[in-house]
Every structure is written in C-alpha cells, then in structure tokens.
Design a protein that fits this description.
Layout lengths: L15 E6 L4 H10 L5 E7 L2 H10 L5 E5 L7 H7 L4 E4 L10 H9 L2 E4 L4 H5 L5 H7 L2 E4 L3 H13 L5 E11 L6 H10 L3 E6 L2 E6 L5 E4 L6 E6 L4 H8 L5 E8 L2 H15 L10 H11 L7 E10 L5 E10 L10 H11 L7 E4 L6 H6 L6 E5 L1
Parallel strand pairs: 1-2, 1-4, 2-3, 4-5, 5-6, 6-15, 7-12
Antiparallel strand pairs: 7-13, 8-9, 10-11, 11-12, 13-14, 14-16
Helix pairs in contact: 3-4, 8-11
C-alpha cells in the first residue's frame, strides 16, 4: 500500500521521498528548487551524471536534498526505487515522442507514484493502458503534468460552470524569447509539417504542424503574435473529456517573428516532401534562437477561448489569458508536477490508477505552485 511517507528499516517514518529524473536539467532544476525546502519531502535529484546531480543538490542548501546516479532505462529500476524507498518519481527527461512506458511500469512494480511532463499526444493519451496495474498497486500514474493538458484542462474546468453546453475550445501558447531545452525542441520540430488530426465542427480533419499561419491578439504587452497548428494531447483528450464539444483547436508560436516564420517556411518544405523532418536541425535551431534572444520578447502568454451556451440557453463565450513577464513563461509547465508532488506528500491525492493529467488539479492549485513567478491573469 502506498503511504504519504516512507518507512526506514528501523521503523522510523521518513518524509515523502520524491525522485526527480533529469533533476539537473531545465525543468528538473525548477521543480527541485521548488520542492527542496518542503520539510515533509525528501528530495532525490537523479540522472546519469551523479557528479552533476550532487553538485546541484548541494547548491540548493537543503539537508533534505541529495544527488544520485540513476539510469531511468535500467532493467533493475524498480529494485533501485524500492531500495531507496521512493514514494513518487517525477520524470522530466524527454522527448516523450516514441518513448515507451518502461519507467512508469517500473514505478508500478515498485509501488511508487509516477508523474511526467510529457506533451506528446499519443504518449499522454495512452497512459490509461496502465490503469488496471496502477490501481492494483495502489499508486497514481499520470502523464502530461505540463502546460498541456494539465494547465489547459484546469482552465477549461474553471470556466466550464458558466456553460450549459460547450461547443468549442480554441487555445494556444505564445512563447517568449527564451531558448527551450533540446528535448522540447525535438518534440516540436518532430511534427512540423507532418499531418495532424483535430476535431473541427464535429469532423476530424487533417492539418499540418506549424502551418495554418495566423495572428492572435493577446492582452498587452504581448499583443499580436504569429501562431501555427501544433500536435498536443488536448486534441485527443478534450473531445472525450468534454461531452458535446464540436471543435478542439490548439495553436502555438514563438515571440520572435523571424524564428516563427522561418520555422513555418521550413515546415512547409516538410509538408511538400522536400525535407523529411526538421528534428535533425534541432541543435541549429537552438543556436539561432540563442543568438536571437537579446532581440526577442521576454513576455509569453497562454490563452483559452470557450464557446457554447449559458444557462439561459443563449450563446456564450469566455476568454482567459495568462501573461508571463521576465521570461518566466518557460517555468509554467513545471507547476503541475510541483503541485501534484506536494499533494501526494501531504496525503491529499487519494486517486489511484493511470490517467492523463486532467482533473487532478484545480486552476488555483496549479497557479499556487507558480506564486513566485511574475504572472497576470486576464479574463475577457
């Protein structure tokens, strides 16, 4: 049975042990910094480079944090998790496109909870295949603890009580100028120019990654930004989650127009079959983005627009935006893992089983994990 704290061989109750795989990476560092000072959490910062893990752990100044050498793909991962009394594992090491569920399965065997930051559509949507095993082990296994679908679904759930019927969900993200990590870059470039299915007006239609170029108007100071079509778990999960919805559309873009339009043009070459994939160009994209950072915006935004009927049966629409200042946008995806880890450590997450990360957090819980960031909500 899963408990809120580990028990040592001496019988002494220990704080809830959380292992962050990739804990010294981009997202991992942010999550570890947030959890390191929680008195009821024993934090293990894990990765293949134990020296880096230990150095980062030492920099946190917490007696509750330590670095370890661990390979998430090791055949004996479950044994290692049991030996270290891990209660919850957070997997930040992507990209998740093409990955299997080996780490999640090891967690189930070890009877510890599993959380990942995946935004790969098929990976997140397919995690429910482990539900029976996770329930039998008494653990929570959840995928997609990120901006999509964890935050976006929390926003929809927050606005949903205003509607008697929901017909359209149109949402997206415009990033600032901060260069993402390699895993994130590979994930996006992997579907640029490739066909994507999404629900529009009750019909599944084929569109193409990073195409459908258009301008979206955000609240100042973000204002107008270029966006393109993206492949995210929401396109698969939301039509099932929200009964009666006829359209689920997601777009994303980057704040620097040169970078966005160049990616759009190259994605067009993939669509025409002149280039097989943009993924091999990820290191070049990262270099160019870093070069453009000084002239790129430091503000980013998330938007969700809903259309349907109110409780009087009249047409109703709602628009919600989250604007991030000071290049804090890249930290937003970490909110779900932080909030879930704290709920598990506090014993406030009774749900067991395997599920995409929807319905596990309220919008208030998600944003509370990001209270240290410079964020502003805009309701329209």
């Amino acid at each position: 049975m899963q408990h809120t704290a580990s028990e040592s061989q001496s019988g002494k109750t220990l704080p809830h042990c959380i292992l962050v795989i990739g804990g010294y990476g981009n997202f991992g560092q942010l999550i570890c910094k947030a959890l390191a000072q929680d008195a009821n959490i024993r934090l293990l910062i894990g990765g293949r480079d134990g020296t880096r893990a230990s150095a980062f752990a030492a920099s946190l100044g917490s007696a509750q944090a330590c670095g370890i050498t661990i390979n998430a793909q090791a055949a004996d991962l479950a044994v290692q998790l049991q030996a270290r009394h891990v209660d919850t594992l957070i997997q930040t090491a992507g990209p998740f496109q093409g990955q299997n569920y080996t780490v999640a399965e090891a967690c189930i065997t070890a009877r510890c909870n599993y959380i990942d930051l995946a935004d790969a559509r098929s990976f997140v949507a397919g995690i429910g295949g482990l539900d029976a095993r996770a329930r039998a082990a008494g653990v929570l296994v959840t995928s997609g603890a990120s901006s999509v679908p964890a935050l976006t679904s929390a926003i929809v759930d927050h606005l949903l009580p205003e509607f008697s019927a929901l017909f359209e969900i149109r949402h997206g993200i415009s990033a600032g100028g901060h260069t993402p990590g390699l895993a994130t870059m590979l994930g996006v470039l992997g579907y640029c120019g490739k066909p994507i299915l999404r629900l529009e007006n009750g019909t599944w239609v084929k569109i193409y990654g990073w195409q459908d170029l258009h301008r979206h108007r955000y609240a100042p100071p973000v204002c107008g930004r270029w966006l393109g079509s993206c492949d995210v778990p929401d396109l698969e999960i939301f039509p099932q989650r929200y009964a009666g919805v006829q359209s689920v559309v997601f777009h994303a873009g980057v704040g620097n127009p040169v970078s966005h339009l160049a990616t759009w043009a190259l994605a067009g070459l993939v669509r025409m079959g002149l280039i097989k994939s943009l993924a091999p160009l990820a290191p070049l994209f990262m270099s160019v983005n870093r070069w453009l950072e000084p002239v790129s915006p430091v503000v980013s935004a998330v938007h969700v627009e809903l259309r349907g009927l109110n409780h009087d049966g009249k047409a109703h629409s709602k628009s919600w935006q989250l604007v991030a200042f000071d290049n804090h946008g890249p930290q937003i995806p970490c909110g779900a893992a932080i909030a879930l880890a704290r709920k598990l450590a506090d014993g406030k997450m009774p749900l067991k089983g395997a599920t995409p990360c929807v319905g596990l957090l309220t919008l208030e819980e998600y944003l509370a994990a990001l209270a240290h960031l410079n964020l502003t909500q805009v309701m329209m």
